[in-house]
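Good morning C.,

I know you're traveling, so I'll keep this short. The sequence:
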Amino acid sequence: MLKRLPILCTALLALAACSHSTDSSTPASPSAPPVAPAASAPATAAPATPAPASTAVAHPAPAASAPASASTTAAAPVAPAKATPFVEDPKWVEGKNYFRIEPAQPKVSNTDKIEVAEVFSYACPSCNAFHPMVDQLAKSLPADAVMAYLPVSFMPQENFPMFQRAFLTAQALGVADKANDAMYDAVWKSKELSSERADGQGLKPMSELPTLADAAKFYAKYGADPKEFLAVANSFSINTQVKRADELVKAYGVEGTPTIVIDGKYRIDLRAAGGYAQMVELAKYLVAKEAAGK
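The tokens, ready to paste straight into the viewer:
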């Protein structure tokens, strides 16, 4: 009696700063080039967090060179891909590229997730240059991490205290996020809230700096009532938040802006990291390190 034998073939796919010294001249540094994807796999952007490549996974696929019998042999189940383990990257050196905060300090927010906090001021030119990359960082964080923002007040001559109080007030009124990009534009593009002279020759005198009333008019475009804004800005609640923000900036050892703080445990500044792009890459690396409990 003749028997027909089905032949099964398996195809294998290989996966292959503004600071206290007002230094704001550090240029942006290019980010690391993406890893080239395998020819047969869809192009995938390389993760900023250094990690080894994923292990290859076989996907069995039948190729019939003979007619199949009535009872077709079932394909073997595919084992799920294993999560890529965290691996220390020797190019990031604690004490050189980033700094451990000892003892660890409270987070800016009340989140249970890993917190990535940007220490900033709208009036800081380096923060303005870094802002687009911070937006991308916030969008690219894993599900177990979240972005937070800590405004500083240590440069009154550039109006940092007013912008700190205005941000905390806008946050309390629920308009900070929707007006975030526009606030940078109001300071650095339209200049309506700028601390600089109209001719660009230095700073305005303290008596001519934008006020909370000016900030209230700005936030009115995004749904805040100006009278309510001023009332909240001068409330006990915001006074308490201002005091806490200043205490956290000191506890974190912040010396300039922009600075990034991971979970109240690690501090990244512009100079030590080597540039804006390196700050982002290092922040992602430390998030992965924190997630792995290292």
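Safe travels,
E.
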